[in-house]
Structure formats: C-alpha cells, structure tokens
Amino acid sequence: MRRLDEGTKNRQAWKSPSGGSLHRMKQFKPRLCQIVKQPDVLRRLSEPIQLASGEWSHDFIDGKLAVDDPDDFDFVGAAMLAAASEAGVEFDAVGGLVLGAVPFTFAVSQAARCKWFLIRKEPKGRGTNLWVEGARILSGTRVMLVDDVVTTGGSIQAAYERVCLEGGKVVFATTLVDRGDDASAFFASVGVPYVPLLTYGDLDIEPVRHGHQPAAAAG
Prior knowledge:
By secondary structure, the chain is α/β, with parallel strands linked by helices. The protein is built from 6 helices and 8 strands; from the N terminus they run ααββαβαβββαβαβ.
C-alpha cells in the first residue's frame, strides 16, 4: 500500500479544523506531483503507446491508480474543490464521463458535500434508458465537471455536451492531469473556467500533439 510521509500534515493544510475556506491551489501542487510521479502511476515507456484519445506517447499516466489510497483520494478531492473555490464558482452537482471521472466525482462530492452524477458513453438500452445516472440534471443545475487524465479533451468535452443537452449549466471543469492544450482552448471558447490540477509542464513530460507519433527511445 502506497503512503506519503507528508499525508497528515497536508490533510491539515487543505481544510481548517473549523471547516473554513480551503487554501489556495499552489499549496496542493507539491503533493499532487508526488502522487502522480509515483512510478506505478506515471510510467516512462521505451516504446510509444497509443492512448485512449488515439494519440501516441512514451508516458502513460494511470489517473485512477493515483487515488486508490484513501488519503490520496481525499487530498485530490479537496484540491479539485479548492480549484473551484479559487475560481469563485459555486455548483450544485459534480460528475463526468465514465470511467475516468468516477473516483474524482466521488472525491469531490465527498469534499464538497454535494450531489454527484455519472454520464454513460451510451444509454444502457433498457429500463429508464438514461444517459445520466445519480443526481438528475435539470434546467439551471450548476455543474462541475471532472476527469482523470485529459489528452485531446474528447471525454470531458462529451460530458460538457451531455450536460448542456440535459439542460444543465457547466460552471467549472478540472482534471487531475492535462497532457495537452486542446481542453483549455475548448473551455475558453465556451466561456467555462477550466483549471487542471497538473499539466505536462508540472510533470516534466512532453505534451501530446495531434497526429504526432514519437520515435522509440534509443537503445
């Protein structure tokens, strides 16, 4: 089981004993980097692999494994909530597209004490045949979107579009790691604040570019 030595101290840093305001995002970044840079979470591969986005990279990030430990789960949830708080937004429910958004949805819901929802990639085809499970997104529902690792932003953009179709209003979006620049451009175009907790620059890895397949590492 993975543990970080600074766990207890950092948990005290992101929430005051009285339940007051969360600290600024910069106070979360050092431990976030520790969490993601663990060798079983961020792996450097000799041969490039194809990511879920269809792009290629030597670096593989297992975002869900980053929060398999309950202390890290709580910390990342608090960091995402702090990002929203620092942006000055309020929301009624948090969620995203399965499967990547699942643990982060629950982490933020627990930290914020708010409702959660999950968006299917397609309706299940029976029963109520819903796209969205959990909290119902109604007209005017203010939504925070989350994800694990964003590359081209396809999943979090699909989540945005589904929330809009359901009548909700996306007021903030975040992810554990953003490996490119496309999601930032998309959310800027629709006027939604988007703050990834970490970027490729924070992790000292190459950004993922459209249509670029990196060469194998020299042997």
